[in-house]
Amino acid sequence: MASINEVIDLSPKGDIAVVSVNSPPVNALSAKVREGLYKAFVSANADTSVRAIVVICEGRTFIAGADISEFGKPSAGPTIRDIQDLLEAAPKPVIAAIHGTALGGGLEVALAAHYRVATKSAKAGLPEVNIGLVPGAGGTQRLPRIVGVETALDLVTSGRHVPAQEAQRMGLFDHLVDGDLREGAIAFASSVVAEGKPLLRIRDNNEKLDAAKIFPEIFAEFRKANAKRFRGFDAPEANIQAIEAAVNESFEVAMEIERGLFRKLVAGTQSGAQRHVFFAERQASKIPEVPEDTPTRPIRKVGIVGAGTMGGGIAMNFLNAGLPVIIVEADQGALDRGTATIQRNYESSLSKGKLSPSDVAARMGLLTPSLQFDELADCDLVIEAVFERMDIKKEVFEKLDGIAKPGAILASNTSYLDLDEIAAATSRPQDVIGLHFFSPANVMTLLEVVRGSATAKDAIASAMTLGKKIGKVPVLVGNCHGFVGNRLLAQRQREVQKLLLEGAKLWDIDRVIYDFGMPMGPFAMNDLAGIDLGLDPNNKTPNSVRELLVHLGRRGQKTGAGYYDYDGNRNRSNSELVEQVVRDFAAQRGIAQREISDEEILERCLYPMVNEGAKILEEGIALRASDIDVVWVKGYGWPVYRGGPMHWAELVGLKRILDRLRELQKIHGDDFKPAPLLERLVAEGRGFKTL
Ligand code: 3H9
């Protein structure tokens, strides 16, 4: 790249000036890009031989937004708004030529151009809400002026990437180019000049705002309809307010309102946490010991052992990605039920319009149900999803060892068990790996990739790549009981049960956890999943509140009663009977009950999780603190606006957590014994992110 600076080129093509951005990976609007663009537009605007300007990008995408890594740092040079002012006020037509994804600040730059052309595979969106922001360069002002208020509200609060055809229907794109984008854009620019088309400035066009002026209730209705989805988040409301300002204020005043909202959010903890998760998610796929150029094993056919809920859900991931799957069960009834569930899930997507009949047929066409284990012989990857018991898992792996082809990856979906012990049942532990999917496996995006002590690097690289291919967020974890996610969960579960016996009401515990931002409290969650899950059905001597409830036939929502009572519509209410069961059990155990504050509930549930995270880091089970955050945000519903347990811990203050753990240790014993790493970090005044 030459002409303006390392990342911006300005070249004439006849009487059209072409401004190109080349700043890999995603042409984000870094200081260098902004500076180059500004200079290029000043120059092209002033050059009287130039009759139109095309702005286009090299590489995989049009500008994908502001440079998120620059947020929170002092900024210098021209702002995005300065560039937009130059574009919008240019005395000649400016055409944005879009391929890949025009997102955030990228789309905002394009919206300040007079026209937008795009490839048929291009997408556009304002995804700032996903990193806790509002668009800060007029996106909330120009977008509703093109697509109308209702659509704009949907786009800015969902952050959805709109495909080219839909964007054209909405008026976001003026023209879709077949073939070469640069040539198409130059031809379009020439025609604008030749036909003397107007310099369309979106800011001047207020027509699309009229409907909301006549019907201002649209905002209240939108808030109400989406209250559940927006719960806890600051950014959706700010986005709505910015669009309200577009309707009620002048362009200039509303631009200032948008700027104020952006500034407040970008300095706040929610956006900080959401940006942390954005980068953490991408960081998770980087494994120092397994560099990106590590060869991967081709995976063309996948075998699944077990057609239960997990096996079926796992199979769907691969069918969705166009990979043939053979699913094996021991008995015909279970195989038929599993296949029928997969078919039913696809039909439900069909009825919601998410899949077409041919999509469903193609996916089901890739599925081969079988009762013959031997048919797994030509699979490149086999995933075991049988009952969570070591003896059963070992038997499966012994059998697999006998039939799988050399080099096939043999994976276990175990959520707790020792992967090395499973691997030892084979003669090829280097090919054995854990692929821990989360239920429902076709929906949840987390994939814990468990490495055993002998797992080969290329098997790890293959699993990580495949995980991304099927749309998961793969996180590499080491082998231990419960890996990362369930190890943290076990801490919370233990405290929840202890708190209950000490006098906290279960609905108070649920409320505190829910208000923190988790999708559900632990008891409501238990009732949903079935509180008998994993318990021995023949146990005649119940030894915990949970076992007592199961003994009473209160197995959760499915029996109309569990920790809570349920009516016919699964609405829950508090149960006096359960309160009594808890009180009696505590008395029998000699546990004195007392009032427990919300603060204590939260600290006792969450601080031990942070402490466990520190132990996990110390043991090398997770590569970095942010991987633990990704696991809990993607797999367990930790509110993304709190950034995951380790990020949150630093906001609370590691010293405060350590001090409280020490106090709790004195009262309640070694469940609260601080991790040596936590002590060391506090002593050194450092945080997890410095490791
Ligand atoms: C904004 O625009 C604010 C404005 O309204 C106004 C301000 C005043 N900045 O995802 P990938 C990096 S807010 C910095 O793996 P893909 C990413 O970290 C922004 N870096 O690729 C990764 O780095 P590495 C609004 C960014 O092909 C590499 O690029 N825009 C940015 O799967 C590849 O990323 C957004 O929120 C960025 N903006 O997906 C869009 N974007 O290789 C955010 C990416 O070191 N970006 N990186 O790990 C995305 O959604 C996806 O990255 C995208 C590509 C769809 C573009």
TrEMBL record:
<dbReference type="GO" id="GO:0016042">
    <property type="term" value="P:lipid catabolic process"/>
</dbReference>
<keyword id="KW-0520">NAD</keyword>
<dbReference type="InterPro" id="IPR018376">
    <property type="entry name" value="Enoyl-CoA_hyd/isom_CS"/>
</dbReference>
<dbReference type="GO" id="GO:0004300">
    <property type="term" value="F:enoyl-CoA hydratase activity"/>
</dbReference>
<keyword id="KW-0560">Oxidoreductase</keyword>
<keyword id="KW-0413">Isomerase</keyword>
<feature type="domain" description="3-hydroxyacyl-CoA dehydrogenase C-terminal">
    <location>
        <begin position="601"/>
        <end position="686"/>
    </location>
</feature>
<keyword id="KW-0456">Lyase</keyword>
<comment type="similarity">
    <text>Belongs to the enoyl-CoA hydratase/isomerase family.</text>
</comment>
<protein>
    <submittedName>
        <fullName>3-hydroxyacyl-CoA dehydrogenase</fullName>
    </submittedName>
</protein>
<dbReference type="InterPro" id="IPR029045">
    <property type="entry name" value="ClpP/crotonase-like_dom_sf"/>
</dbReference>
<feature type="domain" description="3-hydroxyacyl-CoA dehydrogenase NAD binding">
    <location>
        <begin position="301"/>
        <end position="479"/>
    </location>
</feature>
<dbReference type="InterPro" id="IPR006108">
    <property type="entry name" value="3HC_DH_C"/>
</dbReference>
<comment type="pathway">
    <text>Lipid metabolism; fatty acid beta-oxidation.</text>
</comment>
<keyword id="KW-0442">Lipid degradation</keyword>
<keyword id="KW-0443">Lipid metabolism</keyword>
<dbReference type="GO" id="GO:0006631">
    <property type="term" value="P:fatty acid metabolic process"/>
</dbReference>
<dbReference type="Pfam" id="PF00725">
    <property type="entry name" value="3HCDH"/>
</dbReference>
<dbReference type="InterPro" id="IPR008927">
    <property type="entry name" value="6-PGluconate_DH-like_C_sf"/>
</dbReference>
<dbReference type="InterPro" id="IPR001753">
    <property type="entry name" value="Enoyl-CoA_hydra/iso"/>
</dbReference>
<comment type="similarity">
    <text>In the N-terminal section; belongs to the enoyl-CoA hydratase/isomerase family.</text>
</comment>
<dbReference type="InterPro" id="IPR036291">
    <property type="entry name" value="NAD(P)-bd_dom_sf"/>
</dbReference>
<dbReference type="InterPro" id="IPR006176">
    <property type="entry name" value="3-OHacyl-CoA_DH_NAD-bd"/>
</dbReference>
<dbReference type="GO" id="GO:0070403">
    <property type="term" value="F:NAD+ binding"/>
</dbReference>
<keyword id="KW-0511">Multifunctional enzyme</keyword>
<dbReference type="Pfam" id="PF02737">
    <property type="entry name" value="3HCDH_N"/>
</dbReference>
<dbReference type="GO" id="GO:0003857">
    <property type="term" value="F:(3S)-3-hydroxyacyl-CoA dehydrogenase (NAD+) activity"/>
</dbReference>
<dbReference type="GO" id="GO:0016853">
    <property type="term" value="F:isomerase activity"/>
</dbReference>
<dbReference type="Pfam" id="PF00378">
    <property type="entry name" value="ECH_1"/>
</dbReference>
<keyword id="KW-0276">Fatty acid metabolism</keyword>
<keyword id="KW-0576">Peroxisome</keyword>
<feature type="domain" description="3-hydroxyacyl-CoA dehydrogenase C-terminal">
    <location>
        <begin position="482"/>
        <end position="566"/>
    </location>
</feature>
